[in-house]
Amino acid sequence: MTRTRQLAGPARRNPLGAYLDYRRDPLTLFYDQAVAHQGSVRLRLVHEQLHLLVEPEHIRQVMVTNVDGYTKGISYRSLDHLLGPGLLTSDGPLWKRQRALIKPAFGRKHVTAEVPLMVACAERMRTRLAAHADSGAVFDLVPEVMGFAADTVCRAVMGADVAGVLPRIEADVRDGVDWVMRHMASPIQVPPSVPTPANRRFRKVLTRLHSVVDDVIAAHRTDSGSADLLSRLLAARDDDGHAMDQAQLRHEVLTFLLAGHETTGGALAWTIYQLCRNPAVLGEVVDEIDGQLGGGALDAAALGKLELTGRVIDESMRLHPPAWAFSRTAVAADSFDRFDLERGAMIAISPFVNHRLPEFWSSPLRFNPERFTMEAVRARPAFHYFPFGWGAHLCVGQHMALTEVRVGLAMVLSQFDFELVNGMRVKEHPEISNMPGPVLVRIKRRRAGGNGAVAARKVEPDAVAAASCPVPHGGAEAGR
Predict the structure, then answer these.
(1) What average pLDDT does range 384-391 have in this prediction?
(2) Pairwise CA distance, residues 380 & 367, whole Å
């Protein structure tokens, strides 16, 4: 019998292997081991072997050339309890059918039509921020931008008449995510049907979310004049002329509420954080925004001209990708250049790791939007940068998410100066999304003709900070 070839991995006498390190800080564990082994690596987590694939050809085999040989991995099973088998958690024929139905609803013309809605939601965020500016008090930016993201996604998905339930939806989604994270990390995963105190609370959260979504779906079935995402999903038909049933619509709406809330809110917070640490870039971004808006309203035409702003968002998502890892499970045995995987093998693919590897990026910890000029993007090899996935599983909401972050950034920088308190470094929270927190800031209303970099000059730029910083990400930087 031929011996199965294995990836190299760290030698650990601890019976738990790397499990405790994974629980404490998976980002540092993944990064350190990928660097130490100069590529893909095998990690033992108690009795399981996790294969962290880093090298582009290894990732390509899983995500492109043999994509049907892998299903979504263990992390998606816990998430399925919250969302149900929607586009994010499903596999196989159901996933293919749902993707074909849903993708047209995120076309560029639909995203462009949503820009006025995004601007209105950003204006409400600016009103809240103005109160902080007037008080002069230090506050955490993250809840404010998450509120903007929740406001935008709820209205874009379910329509304008959801203001009364927005706080409840946002709180229930957050509570649901907390339950998923605890369930995912538990060595013994108790199903939600078991009536533990935590499970009973989770079931109440699900009941409230399902009730709100079902009510909105019912209202949309009698309203043919709506133009939101849910209306497009109701009208979608597959090749056989079949529409989504009630349960599937609910799964997809919940998926969009979660994905659109966490990823865009986190990306906006990380981008503002990075700009505050890089005042020269911040000044250029503010000049670009002022030049395009000219004191007027933000519209889709002006938004499309914010080229540097877009590159800044891309560079922020390089350092802090919202989807910090994807998990897969091998459906059948598979062979790679120097190792084999057995059926059921656990796989992790981490944009966070690949986005920071010295083999792929020059001065990887330095914030540098010039990495995303058109020429640089065209020349970049595959799987060095993939914050929204790759291949068949590329996120259908990518364009909408990037547009929303650009709207939010342009709106707040056109009115406020931001100052990070004491130049603090923000801790990463790798949950379902890579969330920052807290981002403690003080803001001021911008003077007419003022430069948004003024307040941020109190913070040393990342180019200097990174040179003396031996660790790869904010959690370790914060001295945990």
Answers:
(1) 96
(2) 17
Contact yes or no for 90/98 (Cβ under 8 A): yes
Mean pLDDT of 438-444: 96
Residues 143, 145, 146: CA angle, nearest 5 degrees: 60
- Locate all alpha helices (DSSP H) within 325-369, ordered by sequence: 351-354
Phi-psi region of 2 (alpha: psi -120 to 50; beta: other; left: phi over 0): beta
Helix (H/G/I), strand (E/B), else coil: 139 = strand
How many Cβ atoms from other residues are within 10 Å of residue 420's Cβ?
A: 22
Q: What is d(CA 280, CA 148) in angstroms, rounded to the nearest whole number?
A: 27
Q: How far is Cα 396 from Cα 430, in angstroms, rounded to an integer?
A: 22
Please check whether residue 121 is in contact with residue 152, taking contact to mean a CB–CB distance below 8 angstroms: yes
d(CA 73, CA 25): 20
Within 8 A by CB and 6+ apart from 76, the residues are 88, 89, 327
Give the distance, in angstroms, between the CA of residue 123 and the centroid of all CA atoms in the same chain.
23
Across residues 103-115, what is the average pLDDT? Answer: 94
Instruction: Provide mean pLDDT across the span 118-123.
Output: 97
pLDDT of residue 62: 98
b/e 106-138 (16+ beta carbons within 10 angstroms → b): beeebbbebbebbbebbeebbeebeebbeeeee
Question: Hey, CA dihedral for 264, 270, 271, 272, is it positive or negative?
Answer: positive
pLDDT cut 90: percent of the chain above it? 76
Q: How do residues 161-196 score in pLDDT, each as one tens digit?
A: 677 788 888 889 889 999 999 998 887 889 999 999
Label residue 311 exposed, middle or buried (CB < 10 Å: 0-12, 13-18, 19+): buried
Residue 430 tokens read as 């790798």
* 77: CB partners within 8 A, 6+ apart: 189
pLDDT at 335 over 70: yes
Residue 70 phi/psi, 5-degree rounding, is: -140, 140
DSSP-derived pairing of the beta strands 326-330 and 334-335: unpaired
| Total number of residues shown for the chain | 480
Sign of CA dihedral 32, 62, 346, 206: positive
Say which residue the tokens 């911008």 belong to. 446
Q: Is 470 exposed, middle or buried (0-12, 13-18, 19+ CB in 10 A)?
A: exposed
**In 63-104, where do the E strands start and end?**
70-72
Structure tokens at 4: 């199965």
DSSP classification of residue 17: B
